[in-house]
Inverse folding.
C-alpha cells in the first residue's frame, strides 16, 4: 500500500519518491510528482527554501481497474442524526449571483480590450463595487474557490478570482473597507499588462521558452506603465500590480526587491494569485487539488509574508460543511465543522462507523488524513 509522508528537506534522501509537484511562479513544474529524488534535486529544494515535501512510501497494490463509485453513500439514520446534531455551518462565504458574474466578466474583458479608454478607471471601480457588495451583503469572511467561476476564459476568471480572494484576505487581515476596496481594484488589474503580451505567447499550450518566459515576466512592468498615468488610482494600487511577483527573499521579479520594500497590497495579491493559478487547469498543466495548493503555499515561508499567509489560510474553505471526503483509514466521511486555524483538518464523521474524527485536535487522529 502506498502511503504519503511529510519529510523535512534537511532529511530528504536520494531515491525517495516525491509525492507532490514543485512549481515556479509561472506555473512551470520544476520537479514533477513521482520523481525519484537525487542529490541535485535535494540541493535545489534547499536552494529554493522549500522546508519540506511529501514523499511516497510503499508499493502500489495490484488491483483490477474499476470505475470510480459515483453513487451516493448510504448513511444509517443514527449516523445522519449525529451529523445533524454536531454540524456547525461554515463562516459566511462570498456569493456572486449569475447576473453579477456576467456583468463582471464583461467588465473585465472591456478593461483588457482598451486600457487607454477614458472610462477605464470608472469601469474598474464599477466591477469592484459589485465584488464589494457581494462581500458586504452577507458579511463574508471566507471564500470557496470552487464557487467563484466567472468565465471560461482564464485571464478574466483569474482576475476576478484573485480580486475576490485578495479582498477577503485583506478583510481577515484587519484592513479598513477603503483599503479592502483598493485591493480589489489592484487585484482586478494585477495582470492587465498581459494585454500587451502577444497572444501566441500568452496562450501557448506548452512550456514557454526562456525568451518567452522573460517576455511574460514583463507583464507586471507593462501593467504598471498602463496605470502610472492614471492619477485617480492610488500608489498602492499601482504597486500591487507592479510587485505581485516579488518575493520576501528578493528572488522575485521584476525588481528583485525584498520584504520591507514590497507593498502590502502586492503581498496579499501574491498569495491569492499563486493559489488560484495552482488550482486552475491550463492547457499546459493539470489543476492541483485545493489541499495540494494550500500545502505548497504553506511551504513558501521564505517567499510570502507570514501574516498574510495566516490570513489567507484562515479565509479559504477547502472542505465545505456537508461535503464528503475520503479518509486514509479507507472510510468515507462527512465534514461537520471547519476550523480557520486548521484549514486542512476539519472535524468529520465516518459515514460507516459514525465515529467523530477531530482531525485538528485529537492526537489519536494524527495519522489520519483526507485523501
Amino acid at each position: 500500500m502506498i502511503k504519503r509522508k511529510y519529510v523535512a528537506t534537511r532529511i530528504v534522501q536520494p531515491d525517495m519518491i516525491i509525492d507532490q509537484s514543485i512549481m515556479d511562479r509561472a506555473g512551470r513544474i520544476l520537479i514533477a510528482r513521482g520523481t525519484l529524488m537525487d542529490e541535485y534535486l535535494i540541493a535545489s529544494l534547499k536552494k529554493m527554501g522549500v522546508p519540506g515535501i511529501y514523499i511516497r512510501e510503499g508499493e502500489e497494490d495490484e488491483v483490477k481497474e474499476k470505475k470510480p463509485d459515483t453513487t451516493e453513500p448510504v448513511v444509517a439514520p443514527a449516523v445522519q442524526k449525529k451529523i445533524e446534531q454536531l454540524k456547525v455551518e461554515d463562516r459566511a462565504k462570498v456569493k456572486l449571483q449569475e447576473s453579477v458574474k456576467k456583468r463582471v466578466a464583461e467588465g473585465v474583458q472591456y478593461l483588457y480590450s482598451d486600457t487607454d479608454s477614458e472610462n477605464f478607471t470608472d469601469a474598474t471601480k464599477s466591477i469592484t463595487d459589485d465584488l464589494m457588495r457581494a462581500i458586504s451583503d452577507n458579511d463574508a469572511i471566507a471564500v470557496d474557490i470552487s464557487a467563484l467561476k466567472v468565465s471560461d476564459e482564464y485571464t478574466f476568471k483569474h482576475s476576478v478570482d484573485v480580486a475576490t480572494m485578495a479582498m477577503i484576505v485583506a478583510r481577515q487581515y484587519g484592513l479598513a473597507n477603503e483599503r479592502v476596496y483598493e485591493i480589489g481594484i489592484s487585484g482586478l488589474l494585477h495582470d492587465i499588462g498581459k494585454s500587451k503580451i502577444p497572444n501566441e505567447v500568452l496562450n501557448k499550450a506548452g512550456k514557454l521558452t526562456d525568451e518567452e518566459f522573460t517576455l511574460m515576466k514583463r507583464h507586471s512592468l507593462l501593467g504598471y506603465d498602463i496605470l502610472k498615468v492614471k492619477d485617480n488610482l492610488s500608489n498602492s494600487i499601482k504597486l500591487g500590480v507592479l510587485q505581485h511577483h516579488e518575493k520576501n527573499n528578493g528572488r522575485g521579479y521584476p525588481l528583485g526587491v525584498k520584504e520591507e520594500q514590497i507593498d502590502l497590497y502586492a503581498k496579499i495579491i501574491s498569495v491569492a494569485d499563486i493559489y488560484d493559478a495552482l488550482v486552475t487547469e491550463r492547457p499546459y498543466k493539470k489543476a492541483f487539488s485545493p489541499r495540494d495548493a494550500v500545502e505548497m503555499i504553506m511551504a513558501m515561508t521564505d517567499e510570502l509574508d507570514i501574516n498574510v499567509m495566516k490570513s489567507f489560510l484562515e479565509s479559504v474553505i477547502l472542505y465545505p460543511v456537508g461535503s464528503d471526503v475520503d479518509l486514509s483509514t479507507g472510510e468515507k466521511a462527512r465534514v461537520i465543522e471547519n476550523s480557520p486555524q486548521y484549514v486542512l483538518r476539519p472535524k468529520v464523521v465516518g459515514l460507516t462507523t459514525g465515529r467523530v474524527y477531530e482531525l485538528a485536535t485529537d492526537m489519536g487522529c494524527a495519522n489520519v488524513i483526507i485523501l
Notes: The first strand starts at residue 3 and ends at 8.
